[in-house]
Amino acid sequence: MRNGSARLSTEPIEVRRLGAVDYQEAYRLQHELAEKRASGEIDHDVMLLLEHPSVYTAGRRTEDSDRPVNGAPVIDVDRGGRITWHGPGQLVGYPIVKLAEPVDVVDYVRRLEEALIRVCASRGVATGRVDGRSGVWIRDDAGERKLGQIGIRVAKGVTLHGFALNVNPDMSVFDAIVPCGIVDAGVTSITMETGVELSVDDVLDEVTAQVAACLDDPIPPSPGHTEDALAATEPATATVGISQ
Fold first, then answer.
1. CA 129 from centroid of its chain's CA atoms
2. 187, 89 contact by CB (below 8 A)
3. Cα 111–chain centre separation
4. C-alpha to C-alpha distance for 144 and 23, rounded to whole angstroms
């Protein structure tokens, strides 16, 4: 694990709040930005914050048994992890970040987790990490419930994909799949845990601030979990879902 900022640049992250964006359009945009960031055509990091229309996406570790039982279409993508859902009421963040060297992908994942943990705490929801599983979790007498998801790709030292925070989505959409390939845990949202109605707009400022703070914190977060799905797929390229 490295010390110091996770980012190579010391310039502020450009944040683009895009509202509702079709998944395929956001996919194209983040890949275009990542190529430009890697080549130097863009000299600073960018983070896209948005919501998607309802869509299931499958990472590289998705198994046939994870897929929707209702025949819903699935978009296969190049991030790590397995299958998940994106849609209204869920904040999705795509940081396009050139990582500091030596590149430490797991440290980057933990910093994203830390940002979401802090956002949840500010809303009165105590979350943390689960050994061997990425993301942000609640663990109590009712069992384990996932509230925030992480699934990324790093190519040429630049990150793609990112995180999703369940603010107040329709949770029934998760019934059709095995979320993140995890059969022994549930899925939840900030509103479900607190009973307080929230919108994605309500948390945008705080997520923006916490992601920037955690990526640039000179002291990295404590490990908190064991990575189990860090796989190099080509030179200078890796995908991480860590049992997303």
1. 14
2. no
3. 11
4. 28
Q: What is the pLDDT of residues 57-115, one digit of tens each?
A: 888 878 877 787 777 788 888 887 777 889 999 999 999 999 999 999 999 999 999 99
pLDDT single digits (tens) 162-208: 999 999 999 888 776 554 444 445 889 999 999 999 999 999 999 99
Q: Which one, of 37, 8, 24, lies nearest residue 155 by Cα?
A: 37
Give the number of other CB atoms < 10 A from CB of residue 101.
Answer: 9
Dig out the tokens for 62 from the structure: 């998705």
Nearest to 207 by CA among 167, 152, 244: 167
Strand partners, 231: 239
To the query of whether residue 180 is one of the catalytic residues in this protein, the response is: yes
User: What is the residue whose two structure tokens read 């897929």?
Assistant: 67
Distances (CA, A) of 244 to 170, 195, 200, 230: 20, 26, 22, 12
What is the spatial distance between Cα 51 and Cα 207, in angstroms, rounded to a whole number? 14
Phi and psi based region of residue 19 (left: phi greater than 0; alpha: psi -120 to 50; beta: remaining): left
Q: Which of 180, 182, 238, 242 is catalytic?
A: 180
